[in-house]
Amino acid sequence: MRNEHSYRERILSRANLITAWEDVQSKKGAPGPDEISIPRWRRNWEANIERLIEQVSTNTYYPNRPMSRL
Fold this sequence. Notes:
Elements: H1 2-11, H2 14-26, H3 38-42, H4 45-57
Helix pairs in contact: 2-4
């Protein structure tokens, strides 16, 4: 269980998530199923990362649902 915990801590470290964000941003990644674009994420990227860490750590993270298409 300790290995799982330390692995999760490494993944959720602020430094790791910032590196991941910078990588996605530099590659001009496309929106995912939730349709959140790079410019939209960039507006509040620091708060988004902090919220992601908090939600995953407390098991309250739920990915945004894809927008339905008519």
